[in-house]
Amino acid sequence: MSGRAPLQDHDDEGPAGMHRRDAADDASVAAALAAPPMPSPFEPSPFLLWPFAAAASAGHAATAMLQAATAAWTGGTRGRASPAPEWTTPNTVRLELSTMRLRDFSSDRAAPATLVCAPFALHRSTIADFAHGHSLVETLRGDGVPHLFVTDWRSATPAMRGFSIDTYLADLNVAVDEFEAPVNLVGLCQGGWLALVFAARFPGKVRRLVLAGAPVDVAAAPSGLARLAAEMPDAAFESLVGAGGGRAVGQRLLEAWGPLPTDAEIDAMLQIPSGTDPRRRCGLRRQFRRWYLATVDLPGTYYLQVVRRLFKENQIAGNRFVALGRRVDLGRVAVPTCLLAGRDDELVAPAQLLAAARLIGTPPEEIVTLVEPCRHLGLFMGGRTLAAAWRKIGRWLAEGAASRALAA
After folding, report:
1. Once rounded to an integer, what is the mean pLDDT over residues 222-235?
2. Among 64, 121, 270, 399, which lies 20 to 30 A Cα-Cα from 18?
3. Is residue 378 one of the residues assigned to a domain?
4. Backbone angles phi, psi at 386, to 5 degrees
């Protein structure tokens, strides 16, 4: 991370929840960057063909396995996807666009608008509002972000199979234009790189930027996502899309995966305290399984572009990404930025996100870096991470303390 200190030191205390960083804070980030992701028995993959990881070298075994999977998929799935999970927090639909419903969770429209760009991956956007005590929406609203919206991405129909990255950026632009510019933009995982590209394409429309668990520079550190994208041939991904009639069908990917996560794995992802009432614990587990089974389908064009442009060619970090007809320059992103990484993230290595600090044009003193002791889904659904990091991020967004560092 040449040229950008991961945590900034300040001589005076800032607003609530923000203070001077010390050497221990810097050491925790350095350790997260140096350590490989911890192995996990449950590694949900939003984009790649994880069930075929063992055959990723594209030899005869990979070809045979892919053919067998394609044959099974074209014969239909073993079951139907679960109904879409409900949102926890009351909301209305502000816009109906081809790619999304823009969900409005606002209680006070006098504050600057904050738009959460949810992941468009294997699962539903309700990852941002999963359950009481496990809801990013609930957390931000409770900590000074009352003018709040979330992108509720639509599952791709056959008619949407040709939708591209530009289609989603264009609709995101329409959503942002609903509000008085600039807006706060919060990007989660796969929604994070989309938010970053948007901020570089339309820098005047973004007030503050938060990127959480987002792949920005996949060459910065090894990860399962980056490895499989690099090692599997283009034909494998194209065959996947062909088997889905021009889409990457979420339910079929999920079925090819294997068993549901165990109770212990769910408890770890949601960060459920050991003393939690057994009835609530069981309820959260049931709710997680409903969410996990409610997949979305991805347009084939979009899916293949993401695999190639982000993971195979690393175009964002290389400033070679073209968005809506123009090459985007990350140096044009000069707004206060917060980067939130999971120390044990098994999908997006912390360094892949934190590399953004040296790529964007934001002054070092206005870049805030947080590394939480959690895996990937824990960044968005973990009760401990929400209560710690996200509450402070909410106050940072609300107070605009751009030059203050957040407490770890």
Report:
1. 84
2. 270
3. yes
4. -65, -45
- What is the domain range of residue 288? 23-35+59-399
Choice among 26-35, 165-174, 195-204, 261-270 with the minimum mean pLDDT: 26-35
DSSP 375: -
Tens-digit pLDDT profile for residues 275-325:
999 999 999 999 999 999 999 999 999 999 999 999 999 999 999 999 999
Q: How many CA atoms lie within 13 A of 15 on its CB side?
A: 16
Structure tokens of 318? 């290389």
Give the chain's domain count: 1
Provide the sign of the torsion angle of the four alpha carbons 327, 332, 337, 341, taken in this order. positive
The reported pLDDT for the residue numbered 25 is 45
In the chain, the largest separation of any two C-alpha atoms, in whole Å, equals 65
Which tokens go with 130? 């999963």
In a domain, 314, yes or no: yes
DSSP strand E in 293-336: where? 298-299, 322-323, 326-327
Angle, CA of 141, 112 and 151, to the nearest 5°:
65
Q: CA separation (Å) from 195 to 3, 198, 214, 294, 330? A: 23, 5, 10, 24, 12
- Other Cβ atoms less than 10 A from the Cβ of 342: the count is 29
Collapsing DSSP to helix, strand or coil, 369 comes out as: strand
The CATH number linked to 146 is 3.40.50.1820
Asked whether residue 250 is domain-assigned, the answer is yes
Beta strands at 183-188 and 114-117: parallel, antiparallel or unpaired: parallel
The CA distance from 128 to 116, in Å, is 8
Q: Can you list the alpha helix ranges (DSSP code H) found in 271-377?
A: 278-293, 300-305, 350-354, 356-359
Give the burial string for 29-57 (b: 16+ CB within 10 Å, else e).
beebbeeebeebebbbbbbbbbbbeebbe
Structure tokens of 21? Answer: 């960083």
* 285 in any annotated domain: yes
Q: What torsion, rounded to 10 degrees, do the Cα atoms 177, 182, 188, 191 define?
A: 40
What is the rounded CA–CA span in Å between residue 191 and residue 200? 14
The encoded tokens of residue 116 equal 């959460």
